[in-house]
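Subject: mismatched residue count in predicted assembly?

I count 653 residues in my input, but I want to confirm that the predicted structure covers every chain. Input:
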Amino acid sequence: MKKDILSGGIVLAVAGAYYLGARQILHSRLEDEVGADGLPLILAALLAALGVLLILRTLFASRQQAGTGTREYQAPYPRALGFLAIAVGYALIAPVVGYLVGIGLLIAAVAMYEGNIGPSWRLAVIALGGAIGFWLLFIKLLGVEQPTNMFF
Amino acid sequence: MEQLAAAFTMLVTTPIAFFALAGLIWGFVGGALPGISASITMALILPFTFTMDPVNAIVLLSSVYIGAEYGGSIPAILIRTPGTNSAAATVIDGYEMKRQGRAGEALGISLWSGVIGSLFGLTMLVMLTEPLARVALLFTPMAYFALGILGLSIITSLSGGSLLKGLIAAVLGVMVATVGTDPISGVSRFVFGLPDLLSGIKPILIMIGLFAVSELMRQSGIKGPEGDTTESVRVKLPSWLTMRKIGKAQGIGCVVGTFEGLMPGGGGSIAAFLSYNEAKRWSRYRSEFGRGSVEGIAAPEASNNTVASTALIPLLSFGIPGSNSTAVLLGGLLIHGLLPGPRLFEQNADVILGLYTGSFFSIVMQLLVGIIILPICIWLVNRPRPYLAGFILALVLSGIYTVNGSIVDVWIVLSTGLVGYLMVRNNFPFLPAILGVVMGPIVESNYRRSLLLSAGDHSIFVTDSIALGLLITSALFIGFSLVREIRDARAARQEAQAGIA
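Triage response: the counts match. Full output below for your records.
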């Protein structure tokens, strides 16, 4: 119940921020009657209304209905955010160290985090092999862009 | 009969069978890589066709298209990452079946339904190009607006038990779709000074963030298999009983896919979601949808593979490319001096015959190639979980970088992943958000174009007969779904009260 009230509050905050953003949209001489900000303003109002409805529904809902639905494994917030932090680390370092090194470090870091394992030869070989495999696939075979530095 | 003999002669005397097979395999690989769409897969091979015989070149490109449209469902089922936009609907039940240890069965159904859809679409292309091409021309901006509303109307049945949360997710999706350059006035919206956002946020980025990254976050710390698992790596083609069970869903997918393919901008993703919803509505096993339903895979897969063939109808008849993929194919035709239109069928009958023959060969070979390639994919996703998670994240981040060659896309996907994780934790459904991202631009731009045509008069949506028909259908969809939701909620309440008593 508390979760839904909090969700409703976040939805209201998003609606407010989006509304402020929509008010910043410039007007053009080519504009039609609806305007570039027409839909965004409607969406902001709609989202705010839905957020209020969610809060009200939760407040008036009977306690009997709470907790229904299937429960399955959900990683706790710190664990899940730790995983995301590794991905964020890749986004930060890949443009600096290049794709080959960045992707190898990413594979190794995720494997260590997920398996609670320390550095080992096996891990190094798998990470290096994976990095070379991805490099060959994306850069050499497909010839598509990946983050690069001056070396890779 | 004469045409069939000519097609067979072409197949055995020219190298089109080789190019069809090569294109199919390339398409499988490209489609299976997240972020590499069918059009990118085709564009990557386009330069190689410059020096080819026109028939071989067109067969190669169309086979890549067929392969990529199917290939997108492989990661959708195995790692909850749609390889292409049109595979997003397959994630729902495909990944659920994989979690139940039925990956081989799910892949077998998607493969079989893909073949059925492709064959149906090809039959439509060969037999009904002329009358169907006329239907494509009837679509006005008003009709496209109504089509978008029809697409959005299925949110009511995809909200997973909470219509209110589904609507919130849908509005958030449409909000994401407003980022970028305004389609009518050219004014930029919500770009925050970032040039990368001027062209908007691609739906595939949102899909990968919501489905793949959030799932990896949710599963973080799960102890998986440490070596080979007991799960069979065999692809299990549907039994006679299953074929009968999925027949209706495939039929729905084929019909929806035929009409969506005709409409420029319609595309496989809209077709897949609409057919998923219709299959659910008409199914005797409705409660299985979302919990590993075989029909939930059959309908979208038949549908998006039908689109791959019927999308060629407006392209070949009028030179109208309805999607990025058909635009690349148009490029392939023009490179070889082939101008689409009625005269193409008269002056370059050999190219058309080659296209039909090569496509048919690719579709048949799709089964064989699938049976060879898919067990390898199942084996790969059964590796020890810590390494598998690393490889999936590496694949996802590498794939999305290829969409625009920009690190901004990586940030968008990671942010969406965080939002997706919060949505899962708070029981918000993903699918309405994805529909909002896909349908938002169609609805907004066509609504405003229609009003420009009518000088602001809204009655134009009622006077256009196709738009009116689609809007009435949307209203009926919403009405029926609301009635069902209220009835289900009441039944659940009564059950709960009976349990307490």
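The two ends of chain A are 51 Å apart (CA to CA). Marking this ticket as 'not a bug'.
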